Amino acid sequence: MSEHIKTRHFLVETIDVDIGRSLVLMNELDAEELGLGANCRVKLIRGDRSRTGIVGITKTVVPRGKILVSPDIAFSLKLTNGEEIGVRPLPMPPSMSALRKRFRGERLSQDELFSLIKDVVEGVYGEAEIAAFIVSQLYYELSEDELYYLIRAMVETGSKIAFEDTVYDEHSIGGVPGNSKVALIAVPTIAAAGLLIPKTSSRAITSPAGTADTMEVLARVDFTAEELKEIAKKVRATLAWGGKLNLAPADDIFVNIERKLGVDPWHQMVASILAKKVAMDVNNLVIDIPVGRKAKVHKMEEADQLAGIFIRQAAKLGMRIKVAVTYGGQPIGLTAGPALEAKEALQTMINRKGRRSLVDKALFIAGLVLELSGKVPPGRGYEVARDIFTSGRTYEKFKQMVEAQEGDPNIKPEDIELGQHQATIESPLEGAVTYIDNAVINMIARAAGAPFDKGAGVYLHAKVGTRVNRGDPLMTIYSNSASRLEEALNIANTYPAIVVEGMLIKVLP
Amino acid sequence: MSEHIKTRHFLVETIDVDIGRSLVLMNELDAEELGLGANCRVKLIRGDRSRTGIVGITKTVVPRGKILVSPDIAFSLKLTNGEEIGVRPLPMPPSMSALRKRFRGERLSQDELFSLIKDVVEGVYGEAEIAAFIVSQLYYELSEDELYYLIRAMVETGSKIAFEDTVYDEHSIGGVPGNSKVALIAVPTIAAAGLLIPKTSSRAITSPAGTADTMEVLARVDFTAEELKEIAKKVRATLAWGGKLNLAPADDIFVNIERKLGVDPWHQMVASILAKKVAMDVNNLVIDIPVGRKAKVHKMEEADQLAGIFIRQAAKLGMRIKVAVTYGGQPIGLTAGPALEAKEALQTMINRKGRRSLVDKALFIAGLVLELSGKVPPGRGYEVARDIFTSGRTYEKFKQMVEAQEGDPNIKPEDIELGQHQATIESPLEGAVTYIDNAVINMIARAAGAPFDKGAGVYLHAKVGTRVNRGDPLMTIYSNSASRLEEALNIANTYPAIVVEGMLIKVLP
Question: What is the pLDDT of residues B421-465, one digit of tens each?
């Protein structure tokens, strides 16, 4: 049907406005003539390129015959101001019938999933349809076949980067504060062993720091695909931000909605992770699943199930994989927040020792990657990784990486600037730390300004099992904003982040 | 927590732009300072009033210290240009925890549903969250208690109109082409019997004509609450559009998203209908459920289930109700589209006879309303309604209604303007009409321009059971736009709307 709907032509101009969607602002009378209201979808056509926009209506801002478009549209259609483009109402996205099929719990074919994801990436859908796709998964899980098709579709609708050598990678599903710095130690260890590991990662979504945020304290992280390949050629490793590379762009769209809804269906998470890896040409992967109260996975059996999904999909994708289930019951190391974590990682590499939760985790994961390569026999990876780390080769490789990413390789831990405002929480009694709440630590660090304020975050003076006296410091909060520090303190005083218990719990009358 | 988030003040100006949400356009640097990105929610505060807006970001359109707001915000906060208002980030809607509870399939309390609906009406949620609430209902139906709380919440978050006399009403769940004109006959019949029936209805959502669209061909339909009461006082009946009355405004928000997703959960539909009725002070209601292939309800057992939901909720709400399950296997009468239907209804009332599918249906429903009133003994409603109709009192009352609603009471059917372009589809063979596809008739009439183009629609020359010769007209399509007519014709030629079958189906070699 849509073939018979009329296309009208308009003079275009870019409007510097970001409303989180592709905006086409048009005069009320033009809109009426095309049968369009606010929020309607239109197809924008320029030569043989086309894309979708969402209509906004105005009486006065735009005269008849003209439209204003947001910069993303101008960019993808390569428009210059004053050019003419075609606008055509788009009544029903081609993949809508597939979406409705999913609502009814019916299985989607490879073609249906591809057309759905294509429409998602092309901006054909608004938030409602994307949210509906995600929420439907809470009730009808994707089948393993559907998940595979979803991953393929997410890869095919984005860019890919090819490397000449075999590509290794490691990835944590996250959820535990302080985890972003693990990769800063694991990746150079792996590269020091001679493997190619061009790691890209996202910025923090709900945590106080993502690996890209933390690395950014020490070096540049936003590179084009060409630059990334150049760096990888030179030093065999990167710690970069994937945001500019257009790898599986559907993922960013899904993540944005998942965050709003506070839901994160497993199959969707597996798809997001593996699609980005396939797009980065990864063929050997170690996945880290932290398990613990207030981590993303709470129980061992759940971790096994999730690991099973990863393993089966990797097999379908022709990717070699190992899944590490790790302890996620409290934060990793002593720090949460970009600068604090960068400092702890750097210090740990320079000193060739540090908190076991950090060093052991990084080296276990690096070891598994080494075992995948076949260069190290099964069961001996950790040992080899530890040798690399204690011999100083991890730090040497890390310095090369920082330099290749345009940072100062000789930066000292004490040179790293932390938030200029600080406040310390003290223990209210004598006893031992029995519990640290990951979710509250995350909340405090984010309230203090992390990850946007790189100096913001939390330093833990004590971890589970540490004996403390009354008045001993439990944690210090850092922020560059006095009012944000106050906000973070308020949360810390409301929710117990670090639980100290003495032997005597209570006295009855 | 949100209590500790800073409020900043900005000079405000209205921007004449409708993007289907409440827009707050601010400078990139101001947004960054407040930790806001595109699509983030903010609370806008002016004196003791406040409401929610969605952030848009610009580098150049708005200078620092200033914000542009869409007209709906300016209206509800009574803002004048150049005034100062407070802007505060709104990280997490208060009812988000209730929404997440629903995702997990847990039951919501009355307070939780109220806070959820309040946030929906106040614009706190974007499409994603509202879609998620609706889609969750496809998998976990609302309980009867939850449905009751939802209805109450939808009523309480809108305006109410009180009448001095007992209020009657009738309402069809819709879905069958040509149904909009039934009320044009039923309502004056009911009012002619002395009952008060101030009917308000919506415009067409997915059909080619809603009752408000059809009545608008003959009279004004957009009245304020005061005007509506005045008209009801004078002539005991209205056929008005409810859109300006702010009755259960959550409904409009839900319907908009349901339409996008092409889903319509039963409980949500019952809530929408009954909430509007409670807000209109209705205490005696007849609900029409058309059943048929390509109607909203396909099977008798489904109709029974749906009727049960209506009946139990009405009991909880203290409303007397009867549910009519009616034949919805083909269009009602011969017409679909505002002007065509207005013409058919007018002609039917003047002639005191017409198509049985129209006259019988209108009078059965009117009869049930009369029975509810107690003025007519059970089982005799139809007979009394028919007397009113054949005596001409229905038409007399309708003329009074048209006059009270500022139309011309003496308008003749032939005065009603139909679309100036027409095309007729002929029967390809000799035989009988065995099937008319409601969905295709709707598609054709909408493609022709209905309901916005009032003259657009479909006239049926034959209905199921009619014998036709080859070349006999089956239907005529009307439109005021030649290109839209072509589009509609194309659909008519692609999908069989009217199926004619002869005795000989096929000859094998």
Answer: 999 999 998 888 889 999 999 999 999 999 989 999 999 999 988
Contacts of A479 in chain B (CB under 8 A): none
CA-nearest of B86, B112, B87 to B98 is B112
Residue positions of A annotated with a catalytic role? 264
Is there a contact between A129 and B132 if contact means CB atoms under 8 Å apart?
no
Helix locations, A209-299, DSSP H? 211-216, 225-235, 250-261, 266-279
Does the interface predicted TM-score (ipTM) exceed 0.90?
no
Average pLDDT of the residues in B186-211: 93
Say whether B319 sits in a helix, a strand or coil. Answer: coil
Q: Which of A17, A21, A128 sits opposite B257 (nearest CB)?
A: A128
* Shortest alpha-carbon distance between residue B1 and chain A (Å): 7
A136 touches chain B (CB under 8 A): yes
DSSP structure string for B24-81: EEEEHHHHHHTT--TT-EEEEEETTEEEEEEEEEESSSS-TTEEEE-HHHHHHTT--T
- State the Cα–Cα distance between residues A14 and A82, nearest whole angstrom: 9
The answer to whether A198 and A280 are in contact (CB under 8 A) is: yes
- Non-local (6+) Cβ contacts of B67 within 8 A are B10, B11, B12, B13, B24, B25, B26, B30, B85, B87
> Which residues make Cβ contacts (< 8 Å) with residue B176, sequence separation at least 6?
B290, B292, B295, B328, B330, B331, B332, B438
The two counts, helices (H) then strands (E), for chain B are: 18, 18
Would you call B129 and A260 a contact, using CB atoms and an 8 Å cutoff? yes
Tell me the chain A residues in contact with residue B6 when contact means C-beta distances shorter than 8 Å.
483
Q: What is the structure's pLDDT at A2? A: 40
The Cα–Cα gap between A212 and B239 comes to 61
Provide the pLDDT confidence category of residue A21 given band limits of 50, 70 and 90.
confident
Q: Edge-to-edge strand order for the sheet containing A320-327?
A: A167-172, A282-291, A320-327
Per CB-CB distance under 8 Å, the chain A contacts of B262 are 96, 100
Q: Is B482 on the interface with A (CB under 8 A)?
A: no
Task: State the average pLDDT over residues B479-494.
Answer: 91
Contacts 24+ apart (CB under 8 A), B97-106: B99/A261, B99/B129, B99/B132, B99/B133, B100/A261, B100/A262, B100/A263, B102/B133, B102/B136, B102/B140, B103/A135, B103/A138, B103/A261, B103/A263, B103/B132, B103/B136, B105/B139, B105/B140
Domains observed in chain A: 2-89 (2.40.40.20), 167-244+276-404 (3.40.1030.10), 421-501 (3.90.1170.30)
> Distances from the Cα of B105 to the Cαs of A99, B101, B115, B142, B504, in angstroms?
22, 7, 18, 9, 55
CA distance A283 to chain B (A): 35
Smallest Cβ–Cβ distance between A25 and the set B17, B59, B138 belongs to: B17
Helices B225-235 & B393-404 angle (0-180, nearest 10): 150
Which residues of B are the active-site residues?
264
In what order do the strands lie in the sheet containing A473-479?
A: A335-336, A457-460, A473-479, A421-426
Query: How would residue B220 be classed by pLDDT, with cut points 50, 70 and 90?
Result: very high
What's the confidence (pLDDT) of residue A465? 84
Closest CA to B386 of B355, B357, B352, B350: B352
**pLDDT per residue as tens digits for the range B226-272:** 999 999 999 999 999 998 899 999 998 998 899 888 888 999 999 99
B55, B26 contact by CB (below 8 A): yes
Which ranges constitute the DSSP H helices of A25-163? 28-33, 71-76, 96-103, 110-121, 127-139, 144-156
No. of H helices and E strands in chain A? 18, 18
Q: Under an 8 A CB cutoff, do B491 and A452 touch? A: no
**CA triplet A307, A312, A315: central angle to 5 degrees?**
125
